[in-house]
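MODEL INPUT / OUTPUT PAIR
PAIR INDEX: 1
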Amino acid sequence: METKANAITVSALVNAPVEKVWKLWTTPSDIQQWNAASPDWHSPKAEHDLKPGGQFSYRMEAKDGSFGFDFGGTFDVVTETQYLEYTLGDGRKVKVDFKNVDGGTQIDEQFEAESQNPEEMQQAGWQAILDNFKAYAERA
């Protein structure tokens, strides 16, 4: 019997206009600058075809080379400056909302939890990446 994965949400209010936030979120060279949960990790490669049915692959690695993995999947819905929905390679769904809030951008990212790690750890990791994005977007 298959069980439905729990959904976890992470959020941030970015002090930048939604058009800028969208560009920084979806441009591969920018993704490489912010897509890491801690300073000892990085994304040396990011590729995607940003359209429904388009594939994406973001390489995530420890800077010391001790571990790495490809984070990838398929875009299901792409609504420029508003919404992304994608399916990860393992079948989990991710939804990302971008909302204009008084000149800033509210990002709400919801993802289905995986079963390998505690949900608190997953939430902390995804929140750390989102916080990294916020810091990057606000100084870019």
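PAIR INDEX: 2
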Amino acid sequence: MRIQVRRTGGFAGIERHAEVDTSERDDAGEVHALAEQAVADGRDTPPIGVPDGFSYQLTVDGRTVYCSDPRLTDAQRQLISLVLKEGS
């Protein structure tokens, strides 16, 4: 499974992008479940965010959804954190 996260917005407006491929991960099953929940909780169009908040584009195996602070679900927050920390 290929998971991509694109973060935009924030005070400085700096965009960040990262990607993770779960094919060789020991915890792939857990990450897949997390990604599926995060996508299920996402929106098909970008939501209206808050000033200086972050907006996210999550793409999991070609399906893209959108979410933003401060209304991230736990699954979205965990997935974003994992991908932005470990992605290249």
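PAIR 2 NOTE: The radius of gyration is 12 Å.
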